[in-house]
Write a structure and sequence with these properties.
The complex is a heterodimer of chains A (236) and B (340). With 236 residues, chain A is an all-alpha fold. Chain A has ten helices and two strands. The chains are: A mainly alpha (236), B mainly alpha (340). At the A-B interface, loops of A face helix 7 of B.
């Protein structure tokens, strides 16, 4: 029996590729300047992850250990080529903006990591769920970072969404601060590092609070029968 | 011959003694502050007026969040020193928000996220300065033309960002030299490049910081190694290039008395936390800062180089310390970088 809930939680939170495994930093940091770039690359990575996990899982009994890594990389590279051509066909401007970072999905350690660590040992359906959830976890962090940097750096959110969703999305742009001067640091590479650091710190704070609360609840519930206290304070 | 035995001499003065040294650093900047106020008007004092309270408030807030003794750590004056050094580095035409962002970055990110005083690998004031320089290049390069100081009223309006500072600003000697490097006629015709002994105005700013630096040396707050090695490094590399082509490369004297050279040599590079610590290490560290200042000034794209040079060498300081570790009594000199 496979625990899909655990696989999903691992991908989204407990073993998130971006904030816990810290994998795939190159695209994560390089193209998270705006929400649309982040979303475009995040979706592409998610599709590759899901596809490669299924394929690797299907062939897992036929590939020997010695040549498994080259085989996995070939599968991933084929999928990335497909995604790249699709993006070139349907979202050409975004394809131009993302440039080298689309082919570089091949080298995203998160993709090969999941193929080797999970898909090569599990049946296709759990592998698909794992790929989707890991991809979604990566996508969410990428979009949060993109939103953070876009809001701080340019004072807008969801600008140029028409590159991904067609002309009707061009009105989605939200101008947070009109006439914003721009905070260049957030757009430049250091902003990505600082932003990711803050996101990881935020996740660790939430984890710590959850752990503290679980501990408090465990302490608070009586394990054995105790004398029942009837009033708030005992006076002599 | 008196043979007095004192037990535990190091424990005779209790309390937080960092503040005594830090206060001397603040006092030593006073000649520089005075000259900058004379040349550039009230802006310098207004920068200090904003930066110091913001730095203290940020320091107190972070210390409290980290569960440290707020009152004890505030008494070490390190936040004030950072605020003063940053406030003197940014132009006197700065709007208030520029100063606030710089100070917050210095104290919160560059100092406390790395573990607070004594733990920061980079000079906090210079991190704040570089963040501002790369984020707001326009505001950060608006220096006032010397001796054309705006009135008190105009200075306050620039601080509140309600007046356009452009009417008071002019090229600094370094800007001017960068613009006309290679063009001997223009260089000769630029009045700002020809003061009494270096660029107009800035020669006196640097001379004032030299005075403050000599005070620090006399009080033994800093050792001679870093300032001397940094200036030596700068002069040694600037001299042959200037002799080779004086229209393209500025003279060593101009380099020493322009921009932030002497301020950097005595007040920035000497930060005991982020600098190299051994004597040889300090010499190597500071000489390379001097060389980098010349390289970045001559070939880089930003108006001054001291902040970048110091940060780059801060990065190298642990490695320099590793290879220049002195022999401790009773041990062999450590063999570093040698195959066993």
């Amino acid at each position: 029996m496979t625990d899909y809930r655990k696989i999903s939680l691992d991908g989204l939170w407990n073993n998130n590729p971006a904030t816990v495994q810290i994998l795939g930093l190159c695209p994560l940091l390089a193209v998270s300047g705006t929400v649309v770039n982040a979303l475009g690359l995040g979706l592409a990575t998610m599709a590759v992850l899901a596809g490669s996990n299924i394929c690797v899982s299907l062939i897992r009994h036929y590939v020997t250990d010695a040549i498994r890594l080259p085989a996995f990389v070939m599968i991933i590279a084929a999928l990335v080529t497909v995604i790249e051509m699709l993006m070139q066909a349907f979202t050409f401007e975004l394809y131009e903006i993302l440039g080298i970072f689309i082919p570089l999905i091949v080298t995203n350690c998160a993709v090969l990591g999941r193929a080797d660590a999970f898909a090569a040992k599990n049946p296709p359906l759990p592998a698909l769920i794992d790929g989707l959830m890991m991809g979604l976890g990566f996508l969410i962090i990428l979009v949060i970072l993109g939103a953070l940097r876009e809001a701080l750096g340019l004072g807008t959110l969801f600008s140029n969404m028409d590159l991904l969703f067609g002309p009707m999305a061009s009105e989605w742009q939200i101008t947070l601060i009109a006439d914003y001067r721009g905070f260049l640091l957030a757009v430049l590479p250091p902003g990505a590092f600082i932003g990711l650091g803050l996101i990881i710190a935020g996740k660790n704070i939430i984890d710590k609070q959850l752990k503290d609360r679980a501990k408090r609840l465990a302490d608070a519930s009586p394990k054995t029968s105790r004398r029942v206290r009837t009033t708030g304070s005992v006076s002599g | 011959m008196s043979l007095i035995t004192v037990t535990s001499p190091h424990a005779t003065r209790p309390g937080n003694r960092t503040g005594i040294f830090m206060r001397q650093v603040v006092y030593a900047t006073l000649p520089g502050v005075a000259v900058m106020t004379w040349l550039f008007g009230w802006g310098t004092l207004l920068n200090l007026f904003i930066a110091i309270p913001v730095a203290l408030a940020a320091e107190a807030a972070v210390l409290k969040a980290r569960g440290r003794a707020v009152r004890f750590a505030l008494a070490d004056w390190s936040a004030v020193v950072t605020a003063v050094l940053l406030a003197l580095s940014i132009p006197p035409t700065s709007p208030w928000w520029l100063i606030v962002i710089g100070v917050l970055f210095s104290i919160v990110v560059a100092k406390h996220l790395y573990g607070g005083l004594g733990m920061n690998p980079f000079n906090p004031a210079m991190v704040g300065y570089v963040v501002l320089l790369i984020s707001f290049p326009l505001e950060m390069t608006r220096w006032i033309a010397p001796h054309e100081a705006p009135s008190w009223f105009d200075s306050v309006r620039m601080l509140l960002a309600s007046a356009n500072a452009d009417s008071f600003t002019g090229a600094t000697p370094l800007d001017s030299f960068r613009t006309w490097a290679g063009n001997a006629e223009q260089l000769a015709a630029e009045p700002i490049l020809h003061g009494n002994f270096a660029g107009v105005g800035w020669e006196w700013v640097n001379a004032a910081f030299l005075l403050g630096g000599l005070y620090l040396l006399a009080r033994r707050i800093i050792s001679w190694h870093i300032p001397v090695a940094m200036l030596a490094g700068l002069i040694v590399i600037a001299l042959p290039f200037w002799l080779y082509d004086s229209a393209r490369y500025a003279s060593p004297l101009f380099h020493v008395f322009s921009g932030a050279t002497l301020f950097g040599a005595f007040f920035i590079a000497t930060d005991p936390v982020s600098a190299a610590t051994s004597r040889y290490g300090k010499l190597i560290y500071a000489a390379l800062i001097g060389v980098l200042v010349w390289v970045i000034r001559s070939y880089g794209g930003y108006p001054d180089a001291v902040a970048f040079a110091v940060l780059l060498m801060n990065l190298s300081a642990p490695t320099i310390d590793y290879y220049t570790q002195p022999r401790t009594y009773g041990h062999h000199k450590p063999k570093r970088g040698v195959a066993p």
